[in-house]
Amino acid sequence: MGGFVDGIVLHQILQWHQMLSAKLPPDTLLNKEVNMFWDGIFHAFTWLTTAVGIGLLWRLIYRRDAALSNRIFVGGLFFGFGLFNVVEGLIDHHLLKLHNVREISESQGLWNWGFILVSLLMLAGSWLAIQKGRRDVHRQLPG
């Protein structure tokens, strides 16, 4: 889900960057088309991983030992979102330098590290929510 938020909000709506915009600035129609193609590949991968996640979740709900709670579910969604952002941010923004969070900025590095910091905070908060949800579920178990 985090990949969709990143792709839809940052790539398409705000147009802060595209998949290869640091390597291939979208300043010509051809460069824009190439970037759009790789944004599409990114969205296809995001869709595929989301579909796999939904399949795994569907299988999980039939297990008797599964700890099901809204807090664990929402925490898990945001944990995945934060984890995606950390991995994508470190690989695409820092290691491969494919694009920056805010391509047209005098402080690209600040935007990139801020993205990682917000994502780490999201990971920490969601992990705490998952742990609280697990404790709540275990308290509700009989015996």
TrEMBL record:
Checking InterPro entries in the record gives: DUF2243_membrane
Protein origin, superkingdom: Bacteria
Q: Does the keyword Membrane apply?
A: yes
Protein's UniProt keywords contain Transmembrane helix: yes
- List the keywords (alphabetical): Membrane, Transmembrane, Transmembrane helix
Q: Where are the transmembrane segments?
A: 40-60, 72-91, 111-130
Q: Name one Pfam family in it.
A: DUF2243
Name used for this protein in its record: Putative membrane protein
Q: Which organism is it from?
A: Cesiribacter andamanensis AMV16
